[in-house]
Every structure is written in C-alpha cells, then in structure tokens.
Amino acid sequence: MKRRKLLGVAAAAAGVSLLPGTAVAAEKDMATRVRHYLDRALAQDCPSVVCGVIRGKDEYVAGASRKGGGPVPHRRTVFQLGSIGKTLTATALARAVSAGRTRLDAPLTLPPGFPVPRKGTRRISLVDLATHASGLPSLPPNLLTGADPYDPYAHYTLDDLAAGLAETTLLTEPGTEYAYANYGFGLLGQALAFDDVDAMLRRRVTEPLRLPDTTTTLRPDMAARKAVGHLAGEPVPDWHDHVLSGAGTSLYSTADDMIRFLRAQLRPERSPFPDAIELTQRPHFTASADLRLGLGWHLSPLANGRTMTWHNGGTGGFSTCAAFSRRSGTAVVMMTNTFSEPAPGGNRPIDELTYTLLAELDES
C-alpha cells in the first residue's frame, strides 16, 4: 500500500459520520440477533469481531472470526479503541469541572512555549475542544512530516507539538462551527495534565470505573489476549502516541471494559461520579438538526424520537463503535481488528451495524 494512502489513514481514522436510517426490529432472541450482526460484519471483510449488548439488567457478549482471521474474540480480547477514548478524556474534564478545579468556558492554557492559536476575538475554551468547535484542523500541520505510515503518531514529541502550534491556523473562529479534530482532544488532554495524560486518565477515569484493560500500555497478560490489527487484509502494527493520546489514538480496551463503561453511562447514579457523567451527556453545542455534541459524546435522534448517544473509533488496524439509549436502557459496542473506511456518503460498516442494532433493540 502506498505511503500517501497509509498516512491518509491517520486522518480518516479521526472521521465521524452520522446516523443511518432505522431498521424495523425483528423478534429474535438476543443470541440469534447478535449472531446475525456478527455474520454481517464478517461478510464485510472483518477478520474477527466482538459485539456486546446491554438491555436493561441483562447483557450479552459474543464474537466471531472468519477462516484465517485469527482466534474467535471474547469479552476480554484486547482491541485498540481509537476515538471512543475521547469520551474518557471528556469524563476527566467533567470531573475537574464538577470538583471546581476548572470551568467549561475556561480558555485553553498550555505552558510557555506552546502558543495557543487564535482567530477573531474569542479564545479557544475547554468546551470548544470537547465539542469539536475549536476551529482547529483535524491534525497538527507537522504531524505527518517524517511519520511512519504504519504508526503515524509515534514519532511526535512535545517539541513537535510546540512547533506545530506555532504553525497552526484556525479554520473558523472558536465556538462557531463543528469540525472533528483529534488535534483538539489531544490538546484537551495536555491542558488537563501536561505531559501526564495517560496517568491522569488512569487515576481519574479508568481506575474508579474499574476498567483494568482500558490503557495505553499493554501488560503481558493483555498482549497475550490482543487481536492483531489489519489494513487491507494485511497485519499491521498498533498505533503508539505519547503526546496526543487524549484523542484515544493509542488506547486499548475490551468488550468487557466497554460494557462496564456503557453501564455507567446508562445508570450514572450508580457510578463513582454521576454528576460528571451527566455533564458529558448534556448537549453543549448544536452542529445540525441531527447532531448535537455533549462532552466527547455525539447525540443523534432515533426514528422513534429518542436520543442515541454514540462515538466511534479507529486506528490503523482496528475499528470500534459504541452507542446507547438512556431512555430504553440499551447499549451496543462492536469492535473489529481491521481499519475500515466509510462508504461514499455513508458510515463505516461497523458503525452502520452498531447503530442499526441499537435502533432495533430500542424499538423492541
């Protein structure tokens, strides 16, 4: 695969598409229903896939693998999570706001030598970063210079970030338009805990929520359970990121951890920090009639008028999607070990399947 195409994956993995149409719910038992979606994922060139479902008090997790696609994944199989990790960074922000350590409208502040770009009179605020309304481009302008096409963030240092900020021109005035940006969430992580983002997320989010396998560092036991990522049918390395990891670019997780995370979203009052979780799900920016932004989370209407709260993710060898409906108490997460691109004018296959399955469950 050509270098330009591989580097394009770094930008494509940051993309988000919107909600597809709702399918009519079929009366099937959960195992049959999930198996149908697993089969559809395999038919769309996923080497292996795992799906987790919450429905009220019940949950169901199952995996499937194509011939030659590796072991059948299970609830503790490790995948790279990608941009779903942005909702963890947003949760850390919400915890800081709830504790009075900062405000959503506080301006983005970084140490000396890290110039924050400006356009117009309004400064970039923390809520702008968390709702993709900062005006920042998707990636720093110098990120892909000298990058390994298979691991495009690994070389990037804090010195590079300082240089990239000095070169950055905002696309729009902060707070005016939605434009999805890994750059923005990377900066949000640094604003919350400069040069200590991964440890901060562990202390403030993953440990309190009991997400032991949601981490940027593979333990030996996790490495033994990790699926191999694929791109265009070929095995590829994982992504590594030491600077912009607040965007989820190098985060690992499992269906088991994501089910626990989604349960906290469905029942915040049972979580260690209900006020923070509620704050992440509250609309803070309206992008269009069909898309509002919480902190990290995207909110779109289902056909029945209820709200689907969702985020997808991807790295060079993995694609993931998580969605839930608070009103019906349902949630779906799907994880696969291949990078996939959206269909022209549509969603990635894994996203389409996740949204449609959630819509079925929400209707039934």
From TrEMBL:
Residue ranges the record marks as coiled coil: none
Domain Beta-lactamase-related residues, every copy: 37-345
Pfam short name (any one): Beta-lactamase
Alphabetized InterPro entries for the sequence: AmpC-like, Beta-lactam-related, Beta-lactam/transpept-like
Signal peptide residues on this chain, from the entry's feature table: 1-25
Keywords, comma-separated and alphabetical: Signal
Protein name, entry field: Beta-lactamase-related domain-containing protein
